[in-house]
Amino acid sequence: MAKKGKMEMYLVASKAKGSIRGGGCNCASDALDALNGVVGWYIEQACKRAKSNGRKTVRAHDFHVM
């Protein structure tokens, strides 16, 4: 992940905006940055969980944090 400043974009903006619009809502200019931040956080957590289990491979169940 990028350090300080702008975070790397993990989303396909047109797809995310399309899903938001498909839900009957408009997409604010800062919405994708916030969603991207959540995705980045999930990736960090999944990496930590994999490492704590002695793995270098992130698996689907590493994203289940709840």
Jot down its keywords.
mainly alpha, 66 residues
- Kindly report how far apart the N and C termini lie: 23 Å
Mean pLDDT: 91
Helicity range of the residues?
40-55%
Low-confidence stretches: none
**Structural class computed from helices and strand pairing:** mainly alpha
H/E topology pattern: HH
Spatial extent as radius of gyration: 14 Å
Instruction: Please tell me what the overall shape is.
Output: elongated
Beta-strand proportion: under 5%
The count of helical stretches stands at 2
Major sheet characteristics: none
Total number of strands:
0
Structure in words:
By secondary structure, the chain is mostly helical. It has a domain at 29-66. It is built from 2 helices and no strands. The two termini are 23 Å apart.
Task: Please give the structural blueprint.
Layout: H1 13-22, H2 31-52
Task: Write a short abstract of this structure.
The chain is mostly helical and 66 residues long. The chain has 2 helices and no strands.
